[in-house]
Write a structure and sequence with these properties.
One of its GO terms (cellular component) is cytoplasm. This protein is an alpha/beta fold. It is built from eight helices and 19 strands. The two termini are 31 Å apart.
Amino acid sequence: MMTSPHVTIIGAGIVGMTAAYFLARTGVSVRLIDRHETPGQGVTDRSFGWINYITRDPAKDPAAHHYCHAAFDRYHALNRDFDGRLFSPATGSLLWTEDARQTLDLVHRHQQHGAAPRALNRAEFAKLAPFVVNPPECTAYCAHDFALHPRKVMALYHQALKKLGTEMMFGHSVEGIVVRNNRAAALVIDGTELATDRVIVASATGSIPLLAPFGDQHGIISSPAILITIEAEIPGFHGILCGPELEIRQLEKNRFIIAENMPKNPTQTALQDLADQTLASVCRLFHNVTSARILSVQIGERPDSTDGLARVGRVKNIDNLFLAVAHPGFILAPVIAQSLTDQIFERESLYEIPTRSIEI
Ligand SMILES: Cc1cc2nc3c(=O)[nH]c(=O)nc-3n(C[C@H](O)[C@H](O)[C@H](O)COP(=O)(O)OP(=O)(O)OC[C@H]3O[C@@H](n4cnc5c(N)ncnc54)[C@H](O)[C@@H]3O)c2cc1C
């Protein structure tokens, strides 16, 4: 019988924290390391946190659609572990494009792949979302979508990990991974070697410098995006909307977050212009917006890959080194965590994530 492994996870974002929780509750002895003093200070803190599959077109990327779909089951099971405190009941999401035909086709493609978005016409939309000024001709409605509040989720995991006896080393940067005889033998922290058994690199774009000494075949890249936080009164609106002009959701009372693409040249002026345009869009989109002001405009370095596939699993040629780097990390976190737990215990996984042989 396999003895219980000891696992060191580098990175306490949504991916590392979820993996730590899955492993620790299975009885694995876990050590979690992060360069920040508290968990969730990387891109996790700048995330929109929308759990959905509607943004993954099953015709273009059936694998991504499949594992985003699988995440819902895992999240509902997780929420039961946390007595429903991990996320509130589904608010649902409304997604539409400029072209009604395109939106309808997208809904049909999802339906053909067994998913359940519904197409709403203008009148149905207006009934469901009377706070929107111009109801679109056709909208994809996903009633079971929900969103996570990054800081609340991090705090809950942190508390749970403490209870499970996880060793947490915050405020420590991993400077390097020492590989001897095809094994990750130690991590270098503050110039000192810390011996390791199994290692999971869940350091998002921070994985790139960590893996650099071994090669550059991993294909992990940074894909920055912008998160804008505003304060406003938007009567009636509390869900998730993704239209051609805005992707917006409520975070807390009178506080909303908006995800935006990165400007080509992200100067201070470009970011300020983007913030001004976003605020104007909010006022155009909703009825009776008052007291609207920008609270922050932040750049988040999303971890992505050159081929769009996840990097989750054992690294080729280094027996005890695993990667957990994937986009979209919030949606996939419990699927990644389940897959890694199964791999560490060397058992077949129902949650295998399409990845490729991880070479570094
Ligand atoms: C604007 C925006 C909107 C988004 N919207 C969504 C969404 O709606 N749904 C979704 O699923 N995803 C979304 N994402 C993507 C999502 O935020 C990321 O995929 C996810 O947060 C990645 O989590 P992570 O744990 O891998 O990374 P991180 O949160 O960055 O965690 C990595 C951790 O590793 C630590 N670290 C790095 N290097 C080292 C080192 N050498 N030593 C010690 N510690 C180290 C960092 O401090 C960090 O805490 C969005 C991203 C952005 C920017």
